[in-house]
Inverse folding.
């Protein structure tokens, strides 16, 4: 099922005709703007100044982590699910006023978190927590049109993300004595699990489509149920170990096993054969960041040569950032009737987001004295990547779908 607003439809109606339109644009803008605020704080703090106009309660770096996860990450998840689930089940997509309300709930959460020092903690929590349950209600309704066990897992995932955000707000309000960053770590790893699940479906599938079209003589991507299960369950086991008080050697073994399983899985998908097609290649690069992040975490837990913070950024800015950009660009082109070829600014964005992840993950470890400068460079690369997406796709996401009659010659 594809969106089909006509050329006579208003831009407002077009924009809220399918979930990917508002949420992918919102995700890209929030990724850029929230990072810009974080960079401003780093720069002014390094100069011994202060941002008096910031009304964020608590440590700004914790707000940064929350907004990259529950702001940017959840917007991308919402856009994906609200677009993919109707295709899986044949259910009518969420459109119009109900979709606009859901988007407004997400946006209200971002504003509440931005003004958290000015508002009661309970109000901030209620506004921010409202989004996932409402999204889950819509997704549940659509999934039960044609229930399939392999898709029902997303309800459990949404539930786990909601609980992680609840834990974050309980610790922020000093109602429980937990490490606030543990909830954020759990949320990042849940998003990584989504990539492991969805990546296993779309990366080999889109790669096969590409190879059949341009290089039919090349062997198809390897798809093994055994390897798929090993990748999923080893990643799940690692995620549990990473957020529970277990010995470092246990975390190291779990991370190493997950890195190996996902690496074997990725190696079978013929990624090198997609070099001429950036819109396909970037999916492999995004998944590669999972392997890099898990391997980095194994190194951190076993030797201390790297930090788990660096590993987290390989998984967040690397895997989540790259795969999100890849899926948003492909889905936005495909579901609006455009050719599946990334425009040059988007190809550049693919490169920049991985450079940002590499700088953030490895830069401070290699040159600790340049920490602030490296953070600024990584952040600017990230901002440029997602600003490029917003710039290129704003006119696409607010315009009707191209049809045979409207597609340019």
């Amino acid at each position: 099922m594809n969106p089909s607003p006509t050329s006579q439809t208003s831009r407002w109606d077009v924009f809220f005709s399918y979930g990917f339109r508002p949420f992918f644009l919102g995700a890209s803008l929030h990724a850029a703007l929230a990072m810009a605020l974080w960079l401003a704080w780093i720069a002014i703090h390094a100069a011994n100044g202060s941002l008096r106009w910031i009304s964020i309660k608590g440590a700004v770096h914790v707000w940064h982590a929350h907004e990259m996860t529950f702001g940017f990450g959840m917007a991308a998840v919402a856009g994906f699910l609200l677009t993919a689930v109707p295709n899986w089940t044949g259910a009518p997509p969420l459109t119009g006023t109900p979709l606009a309300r859901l988007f407004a709930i997400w946006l209200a959460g971002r504003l509440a978190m931005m003004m958290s020092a000015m508002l009661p903690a309970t109000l901030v929590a209620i506004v921010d927590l409202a989004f996932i349950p409402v999204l889950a209600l819509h997704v549940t309704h659509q999934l039960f049109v044609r229930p399939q066990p392999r898709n029902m897992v997303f309800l459990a995932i949404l539930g786990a993300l909601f609980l992680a955000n609840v834990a974050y707000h309980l610790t922020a309000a000093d109602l429980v004595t937990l490490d606030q960053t543990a909830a954020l770590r759990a949320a990042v790893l849940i998003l990584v699990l989504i990539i492991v699940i969805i990546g296993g479906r779309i990366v080999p599938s889109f790669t096969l489509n590409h190879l059949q079209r341009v290089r039919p003589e090349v062997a198809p991507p390897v798809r093994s149920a055994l390897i798929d299960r090993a990748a999923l369950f080893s990643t799940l086991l690692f995620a549990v170990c990473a957020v529970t008080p277990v010995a470092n050697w246990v975390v190291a073994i779990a991370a190493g096993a997950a890195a190996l399983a996902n690496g074997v899985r990725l190696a079978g998908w013929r990624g090198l054969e997609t070099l001429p097609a950036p819109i396909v290649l970037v999916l492999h690069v995004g998944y590669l960041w999972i392997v890099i992040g898990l391997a980095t975490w194994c190194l951190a837990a076993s030797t201390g040569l790297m930090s788990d913070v660096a590993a987290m950024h390989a998984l967040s800015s690397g895997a989540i950032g790259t795969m999100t950009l890849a899926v948003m660009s492909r889905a936005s082109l495909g579901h609006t009737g455009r050719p599946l070829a990334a425009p040059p600014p988007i190809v550049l964005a693919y490169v920049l987001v991985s450079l940002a992840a590499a700088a953030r993950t490895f830069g401070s470890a290699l040159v600790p004295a340049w920490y602030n400068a490296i953070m600024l460079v990584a952040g600017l690369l990230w901002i440029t990547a997602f600003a490029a997406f917003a710039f290129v796709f704003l006119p696409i996401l607010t315009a009707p779908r191209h049809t045979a009659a409207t597609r340019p010659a």
The radius of gyration is 21 Å. The domain at 11-397 is CATH 1.20.210.10 (Cytochrome C Oxidase; Chain A). The longest helix spans residues 180-214.
